[in-house]
Write a structure and sequence with these properties.
The structure is a homodimer of 301-residue chains. In chain A, 50% of the residues lie in helices and 13% in strands. Chain A is of the alpha/beta class and 301 residues long. Chain B binds a DNA duplex (30 and 30 nucleotides) through α1, α2 and α4.
DNA sequence: TGACTCTATGGAAGTGCTTCCATGAAAGTA
DNA sequence: TACTTTCATGGAAGCACTTCCATAGAGTCA
């Protein structure tokens, strides 16, 4: 049996309250006493029980993340940022994987349950109104990343503006025939970033007085390969685009590959703009996420 | 304040012990009573406190994973497998990211600490003897995945044999000049899979009576790009190899790219064999990991 | 030097569960 | 009908902390 706070107290010849104070860096302990307690802890190899601490504090000291485990760099980047922020605050990070819409629902129910977490971060999945009601009922703070719901805090790069900027960039370069390669606008998980970027793309075209050509608009599975196929189709058009805005880096790479396969070169023959998932994610995860976490911590106090 | 087990007991007009039994599916409860308790739980919106449960049981009901968060597909695949297995047992999965050797050490100390987890899974990082002593001192079960230590359980695909098989395959195809593109054999994290695959490669060559040419052996950073550079160097050799065994899929892709850049084709001009991270990982994560988890659970009881 | 404040410290009461042990009633046996 | 068994159930004692409250001794000020 591992030693408890009582063992330490006895050994250091102090009360348990004092040991607890030492453990929590309370200033209300004389230096000599603190040293004695610390020595006792060391000698006994004592480790405080996290569970007991949590019961007593009535906090879980953990935050949960629900996310689809994709290999996408953006996923890993965000997770990395979250992990860093969480670790810093000596919280634990509990992750849940969601791979199917069914599992999604189960997860939304189970993860916040049993007061297991003080806060929840949901990545790339948009909860329904019902889900949100449920969260509120449990009064658990929820933050959305790369997803949206009117009633919840969220951390998203402004994808609409991002899409608009990317497209404007191409327009400034003199392009008039700009295609868009992105994900399905609607999908069972409720991803929205690609849709937003498309909206930004559309806005930019309209503002510039350019046509929004349906044949330049490709939406499909988020993959290297699919983007490649789309690009080939675009190049086969009687009037192929002179530039492509790809909704993610993964897709941009696919476009580039297709272009190269044709013996063409970018950007001489055709320009490609990607959406820098990785940069964006680093920003997202490391700096912006910071605040919601902090906030979640505060709210849970 | 959320309702406690006492509130439920009172409402259902039973003792707290009975409520606890209902919560834990004990058979020692009359059906009618169980129904009453369940109703009370429902009406009160009661959620048992996980922390209290854990303190009482003196288990944490959580398992930790220490891993380097790389974008590598293998990482995500393994994590996915672990998550699935953990979720199934209603344990929590606490992840820790390790990105530098320093953080590695800190993590090895902190993660198992404070009885926060019942078991630890370490991915792709080989602990030192000292680390292992520490784990044993804490009497925390540790399982290694894609890493190794004589005193610890581990789950690894046999990389030596895998490397040997891949190389034999190339030999059977008639190749005699086979190069190896892999990671640094030694690295600060203690990754070993590439080294093992190299050993398999070497064994296969020796068994076949082929030369182990130092100029055919490339080791460097694990990246698409580095592999591409290596391949170009290999192709520039006065006597270039006719086949390449790449230690991972990522690297194999780099090789293929370099080959294509030269206007060559695979497998006509030069064969490339990768190491199917993803397949391997799926196997690893989903089926093999299963057992150690179960075991870890058992041992922690 | 006495009254008063301040500080380090201990005791004890929570925190919300699990579970051992005791109990009374129903059921089974002779 | 008397006497075990069995079984559902409640009470209370943990589990390992935190923290409020009380206290004794040491300072402080007049």
């Amino acid at each position: 049996m591992s030693p408890t706070i009582y063992d330490v107290a006895e050994r250091a010849d102090v009360g348990i309250a004092t040991v607890s104070r030492v453990l929590n860096d309370s200033p209300r302990v004389r230096e000599t006493t603190r040293a004695r307690v610390l020595a006792a802890i060391e000698e006994l190899g004592y480790r405080p029980s996290a569970s007991a601490r949590r019961t007593s504090l009535r906090k879980t000291l953990a935050i949960g993340v629900i996310a689809p485990f994709f290999t996408r760099p953006s996923f890993v980047e965000r997770l990395r940022g979250i992990e860093a922020a969480v670790a810093e605050r000596e919280f634990d990070l509990i992750v849940h994987n969601v791979e199917s819409p069914e599992k999604r629902d189960a997860c939304f129910r189970k993860a916040p349950r049993r007061q297991r977490v003080d806060g929840l971060i949901i990545m790339s999945l948009s909860p329904t109104d019902e889900d949100v009601r449920y969260f509120q009922e449990l009064s658990i703070p929820v933050v959305l990343v790369d997803a949206r719901h009117p009633a919840l805090n969220r951390v998203v790069v402004d994808d609409v503006t991002g899409g608009e900027l990317a497209t404007q960039h191409l327009i400034k370069l003199g392009h008039e025939r700009i295609a868009f390669v992105g994900d399905h606008l609607e999908n069972p998980f409720g991803f929205i970033s690609s849709r937003d970027r498309f909206n930004g793309y559309r806005t930019a075209l309209i503002k510039a007085g350019l046509d929004l050509r349906p044949d330049y608009h490709c939406q499909g599975e988020h993959s290297h390969f699919q983007a490649q196929v789309f690009t080939e189709e675009l190049l086969d058009l009687p009037e192929p685009p002179t530039a492509i805005f790809a909704s993610s880096d993964t897709q941009a790479l696919g476009c580039l590959e297709a272009i190269r396969k044709r013996g063409l070169h970018s950007p001489e023959d055709i320009s490609v703009v990607g959406y820098d998932d990785i940069e964006v994610a680093a920003y997202l995860g490391l700096s912006t996420i910071h605040q919601p976490l902090y906030e979640a911590g505060l709210r849970s106090v």
